[in-house]
């Protein structure tokens, strides 16, 4: 007990022990590390600092999860074929509608197509692919037709001043066709027209200039 009292006397007053310093120092260090380990002299916790760090952590977590979901939706988007010149990129996330008699037809490229009658929606097909050298969009595996095939839709694309779905028809039961006018096709059409005109001009030009 006496020894312990002497030790604490030196320990707290931080006075160098007169005799056998290395022995006392060893005990001082051991006890000091034990006290630190059990956090005997607890430092007061700064609660406002803890709250600030927690808030910062929560904000960063929210930002991270938003970025992760953006990355995953962009990854999904980039899996699609948007055409040779990526000319159909602007179709992504858009739907085109056309009213024909009692139905409203809704075509959402890269997603699905449907036929809506007041409150009833019939699926005409899920996005399948482009066909005819990017001149048609195919939607297949739609709702089963009674006594018939699964519904499907072929949307024929043509050059137009604006995106416009027209002429939806059902030439064979539950097999639908429609037209979509779009500026996305006009560049290619214009180029072909110019190439054709150039070709004609070349053919019409008189031969034998080099001989002059
Ligand atoms: C619904 C619509 C029609 C289709 C019939 C087939 O009435 O989807 O377009 O021809 O079902 O039974």
UniProtKB/TrEMBL annotation:
Domain of life here? Eukaryota
The residue stretches assigned to a coiled coil in this entry are 50-77
Q: Which GO terms describe its cellular component?
A: glucosidase II complex
A Pfam family for this UniProt protein?
PRKCSH_1
This protein's species is Hevea brasiliensis
Q: Pinpoint the MRH domain residues.
A: 93-188
By what name is this protein known?
MRH domain-containing protein
Gene Ontology terms describing biological process = N-glycan processing
| Secretion signal span | 1-18
User: Which keywords describe this protein according to UniProt?
Assistant: Coiled coil, Disulfide bond, Signal
Key word ATP-binding present in the record? no
